[in-house]
Amino acid sequence: MSSEDLRENPSDSPFRHRDDSRDAAPQFVLPLVVRIEKSGPPSRTDALETAARAVLEILADERSAGEGEWAQAVRDWQDARIRKVVRRARGAEWRKAGTLPGITVTGAGGPAAGSEAESAADAADTDAATGPVPAPPPAEVRVFPPVPLDGWPKELAKLQVSGTELDDPRPPVAPDPARPVLWLSPELEMSAGKAMAQAGHGAQLAWWELSDADREAWRDSGFALFVRTADPADWPALTKSGLPVVRDAGFTEIAPGSCTVVADHPSLRGGADRA
C-alpha cells in the first residue's frame, strides 16, 4: 500500500524543504515487503510495529550514511516526499525478495504484539470446536533501499499491494509509557498495508527529531516501540501536542491532509511546548 506524507516540518528538522521543492525533486519510494503466508498470517499490530522498526533499521544502517552504498538513494528519497509502498509476498516470492539487498526485521509474534513474553497458557487461543488455535507467527518485513518511483526491481514490481488485511486475535496490551508509541488516528479506517506505511512515517519523523544520543539509545533497545490506536478523547490533544505528526498526501485511501500518526517518543515529550 502506497503512502506519501505531508509532515509538519518543524524548524529544527534536518529536512526543511518547502513542499513545492519536494514535489519538484525526483521522487523515490522506500519498498517494504511483508510476508503473508496463507497458512499463517501475522497479527496486524505485530506487522505495523515490525514495519516501523524496519524503517528505523534502514535509516540507522551504516550503508545509508556518508559514502555508504545506499546513502545517495536514501538522501534523494528524503529530499523528496518520504513515500513508502508496502507489498505482500509468500513462498517463492518471499524467497526471491530476500535475494535483493535489504534488511529483514522479525516481529514479536503471538496474539498481542509489543507485550512481554507470554506464558504457554496464553500463547494460543482456544476454539470450542477444534481446541487450541496456534498463535500468529512473528511478522516478517523486509525493507529495501529507496528506488525511483517508476524503477522498481522486477522481483518486487510484480508483488501485490492489495490483500494486506490482517487482524489481531485479541486486543494488544497497553503500551509502556516509557517506550515510544506511534499513535494511529482513531478517526480513519486504513488497510494494514496503509497503516504499516503510516507507522513507518511516524517512526521516521521521530528519528529525525532525536539527538544522536537518543537515536543511539533507541537503536540499542532494538528500536522498541508500540503502535496503538489512540483513544478518541485523547486524539485532538495529541495532534496539537508539538510531537511529530504525519499528514497524508491523500493519494490512496484517505483524504489529503489527514492526520494519521502522532509519534510519541519519550525524549520528544519535553518539546511539546514548541508547537
TrEMBL record:
Gene3D superfamilies: Bit1 (3.40.1490.10). It comes from the Bacteria. Its EC number is 3.1.1.29. It holds the Pfam family PTH2. The keyword Disulfide bond does not apply. One of its GO terms (molecular function) is peptidyl-tRNA hydrolase activity. It catalyses: an N-acyl-L-alpha-aminoacyl-tRNA + H2O = an N-acyl-L-amino acid + a tRNA + H(+). Keywords: Hydrolase. InterPro entries: Pep_tRNA_hydro_II_dom_sf, PTH2. The keyword Hydrolase applies. Residues 1-23, 105-138 are annotated as: Disordered. Residues 113-132 have a biased composition (Low complexity). This is peptidyl-tRNA hydrolase. It comes from Streptomyces pristinaespiralis (strain ATCC 25486 / DSM 40338 / CBS 914.69 / JCM 4507 / KCC S-0507 / NBRC 13074 / NRRL 2958 / 5647).
